[in-house]
Amino acid sequence: MNDGTPTPWHLTPPTFQEIEEAARRIRGVLVETPLLESECLNARLGGRLLVKAEGLQRTGSFKARGAWNRLSLLSSEERSHGVVAFSSGNHAQAVAWAGQRLGIGTVVIAMPSDAPAAKIERTRGWGAEVVLYDRATEDREALGRRLAAERGLILVPPYDDRRVIAGAATLGLEVTQQAKAMGAVPDALVVCCAGGGLTAGCALALETLTPTTRVFAAEPEGFDDTARSLAAGMRLGNAPGATSICDAVQAPMPGILTFSINAPRLGGGLVVSDTEALQAMRVAFEEFRLVVEPGAAVAFAAALCGRLPVANRIVAVVLTGANVDPGMYQRALSTIT
Amino acid sequence: MNDGTPTPWHLTPPTFQEIEEAARRIRGVLVETPLLESECLNARLGGRLLVKAEGLQRTGSFKARGAWNRLSLLSSEERSHGVVAFSSGNHAQAVAWAGQRLGIGTVVIAMPSDAPAAKIERTRGWGAEVVLYDRATEDREALGRRLAAERGLILVPPYDDRRVIAGAATLGLEVTQQAKAMGAVPDALVVCCAGGGLTAGCALALETLTPTTRVFAAEPEGFDDTARSLAAGMRLGNAPGATSICDAVQAPMPGILTFSINAPRLGGGLVVSDTEALQAMRVAFEEFRLVVEPGAAVAFAAALCGRLPVANRIVAVVLTGANVDPGMYQRALSTIT
């Protein structure tokens, strides 16, 4: 970005108007997921905790927002060419679903060969062509670009795209409106963060709507690249070899566009352990009767564990997705809290 | 009713206007729970299945609607006296919660001594005084009336009250509006049925809003009193000694008011087994990532098992609650579908 060449348009932040347009675009197609609170939990925390139940979204995660907005904006000629995306999980399903709903004939998704069989099956179920690659030896971004070039497909990035971010930002818009209807202006919003697209979208939406709300990124231990990058003021990657059950929030490093949005706007990064994520999944079941996947529980966990104080404040957290297999979910329900 | 004495006002059906007033009363306090659908499931069933995720309601069930509406309608003098209700589960929690939210000083709930500890604890957590009784030797209705008389409390019945039914009916209002926003007018609505209050409320609401929608009651085997009563044209009780894991839908027989509303309006009763309810809980997890309790899964189960055909039609089902303990939920997730 600093070599004198202009930043490509898609790598510049969306305007607030684009976010509002995205909100109109998703209406009636996507779910306005509820914003919930529990008096019992509020009493325990000494404040108000609002949770956005985004696991109830189409395809089970917030990714449907960005995918729908991006694919809706394709011209009819682009639609006739088709799209390609790479993802091991939630973005894959979202793009496949949106492609089918919009009648896009060719949707190609590059998925690692060791992705859960159910996720591959579900992506195929939405009519997508799944190209499997070896996670150990192949670069998924390069593969995505190659498929796009060879077959004339439009590449749909998981986060570094202003239209994808504008779609994700509609979640921030909804949280603000729903909180207002509950008589609340959050002091803080905590978002589960991988590449940073949802976090960036929310930061942009709230900057206009409720500038007093501080936005925080939550990550699992070992994949706290955004927390460290925010502290350092530059994009840092994760050390190789880390593992976590939080599969949905494991990006190699913050995105280019997302970090440029997040760096000057976020209140910081919050980091939780896998055990804390599992405990948060159990509390979500007990207090809200909500299914949450491990990676989507890290923002809630950060609030429960006091990484971000709730006492005497209003804190909103996003439960970003719910694509968890029964075995892992049973493990969470057996966790002692 | 046929002995010449006039029917008490509270045992006559609410008007549509009262249902609309109840809807205004709950706004901003209760959750507008989402109406969801799954393309995968629709493809499998060959039609459109819309599910109302009412387990996300305050206190985890639709009972919060009736409790809130009834308690909101108390005069300030009545509020100063306090209220009493009897229930082993969802109605207990709903009345305790609504009483606390409305600042009603005395809320007494008669609960069986063998009710789940967590439900008793939660009811107490909302500030209610819990009076335990022996399910084997005491009559809960008589106990409720006695507590009301002795302590000057207002009795809040679980279903046979026009204000409770008007509150429950707001769910029917919401389903209709949400379906319309999704471009759908349901051919049928299936409601989990115990005393019949929610079923009656929905039947009244839909009669005005979408008279082409047929309403059905779903029940578990052994507690199919409404199905048999509808077929016989008179209120029939369940045979003693039946057991079911569907604890939330076990009324001894249809209510007086609810049956008078349901008998001329319903399309019939649908009956499912405990195993079918468990399978439906697992499908709700897989397709919608929703927690459902066994008794709240019977309407969904009826549609999944073909008790009510979905092919080439639009069928809406209500998942009425989600107050299930982790052990039972893990059992459902281990069920083969």
From TrEMBL, chains A, B:
Alphabetical list of CDD domains matching this protein: Thr-dehyd
PROSITE patterns per record: DEHYDRATASE_SER_THR (PS00165)
Family matches, as InterPro entries: Ser/Thr_Dehydratase, Ser/Thr_deHydtase_PyrdxlP-BS, TrpB-like_PALP, TrpB-like_PALP_sf
Entry annotated with the keyword Membrane: no
Domain Tryptophan synthase beta chain-like PALP per the UniProt entry, residue ranges: 31-318
Entry keyword DNA-binding: no
Cofactor: pyridoxal 5'-phosphate
Pfam families: PALP (PF00291)
Record keywords: Lyase, Pyridoxal phosphate
Name of the protein described by the UniProt record: Threonine/serine dehydratase
Source species taxonomy: Bacteria, Pseudomonadati, Pseudomonadota, Alphaproteobacteria, Acetobacterales
